[in-house]
Amino acid sequence: METYEIFRDLAIIILAAKFMGIVAKKCKAPMVVGEIIAGLIVGPCLFDWVISSDYIAKMAEIGVILIMFSAGLETNLKELKKSGLIAFLVACAGVFVPFVGGAILYMAFYGWSAWGTEGFFKALFIGSIMTATSVGITVECLREMGFLKGKIGQTILSAAIIDDVIGIIVLTFVIGFKDPSSNTLLVVNNMVVFFAASLVGGYLLYRIMQKVDARYPHSRRIPIIGLGICFAMAYCAEKYFGIADITGAYVAGIILCNIRDAEYIDRKVSINNYMFFGPIFFVTIGLKTNLRELDTSMLWFSVCFVLVAMLTKVIGCGLMSKVCGIKGIDCIKVGVGMMTRGEVALIITQKGLALGIIDSSYFTAVILLIIVSSILVPILLKYLYTKAPDPVEPAAQST
């Protein structure tokens, strides 16, 4: 692809995202909904003006990294400690119920299979895809409404991070059944080592940044160093520990969230993400979808796949929230906030394709799930928070 073609694609993406984001706000919906719809409009689903190239995909990945870094910077550690156990239990339920639901769905469509058969492995893998939660869209929606720092927002954020870690462990077990070369214990060990290293190294980084911040308060070098730490943590998490890069970025934000200029760092990072990387990330979700190529033989399975994937998250996470003492409509908020699927679901699906566990026809169902959940969740969250807001004042958003 020529350089000038990249410029054309970026111009279309950014302008379409901004226009549809404003339209969404005028319709009382979160801006991210409009940005995702913009991807459907300019992508192969409708006008086919932009194709999701490798370059755009990399820019989108930076977008979700910056979203997670900002989420970490905005994390209230006191609230996080309070919701830690609840978040863990919610995440466990948010993995178990969709995993079982996905496996049952596959067998209901294609027949019940005995242990060790190909059909059994496919059923488990479909369940594994359903375990993933995409925190990026929910985080951006909660931040846009000003409720990310509330108790429910922090519970959703923490549970989603833990959910992906548990989901990756489940995936590793499933792959282990099919691929003996996959070392489940090694993956679990890497996760434990990563979080232990983050605890020790994070404390040292925090102390260093405190001193740098005290010496050069509110200077441009502070957000620059913070951004460098974000990318370094994202790189190390995936490269050396096999953990999702978004988890590394989130941990980097948590490390810096209590320094004096944390809000200043967040503001500077958010400017770049709001103007450039964020819109690319959300538009790219739409660009990856071409509903015109939907295989009719997979249509009913795809519809049921979407329904089961979303309902099992709401049921599992919502009921566990209720068991843990979260009351009323707040339980539904947690369940709805955990419904979104994104990059982790795509990664799991690609892994299954590479290993020959499933074929490419199932990819349509996953894309459809990502699109539907990405659009529906922000709308539902806005409605639920309008009915019962957290005790955090919404921040005004510029357009």
Write the layout of secondary structure elements.
Elements: H1 3-26, H2 31-42, H3 54-73, H4 77-110, H5 118-131, H6 135-145, H7 151-178, H8 184-215, H9 221-241, H10 245-256, H11 262-287, H12 296-323, H13 329-337, H14 343-355, H15 361-387
Helix pairs in contact: 1-2, 1-11, 2-11, 2-15, 3-6, 3-10, 3-11, 4-5, 4-7, 4-12, 5-7, 5-14, 6-7, 6-15, 7-8, 7-13, 7-14, 8-9, 8-10, 9-10, 9-11, 12-13, 12-15, 13-15, 14-15
The secondary-structure element order is HHHHHHHHHHHHHHH
**Unreliable sequence segments:** 393-399
How does the major sheet shape up? Answer: none
Tally of strands: 0
How many helices? The count is: 15
Principal-axes shape call: globular
The average pLDDT score comes to 84
| Helix coverage percent | over 70%
Radius of gyration using CA atoms only: 20 Å
Your description of this structure?
By secondary structure, the protein is mainly α. Helix content is 78%, strand content 0%. The chain is built from 15 helices and no strands. The protein has helices spanning 3-26, 31-42, 54-73, 77-110, 118-131, 135-145, 151-178, 184-215, 221-241, 245-256, 262-287, 296-323, 329-337, 343-355, 361-387. α2 (31-42) runs parallel beside α11 and α2 runs antiparallel to α15 (361-387). The longest helix has 34 residues, at 77-110. Mean pLDDT is 84; it is low at 393-399.
Summarize the structure.
The protein is mainly α.
Keywords:
mainly alpha; 399 residues; disordered C terminus
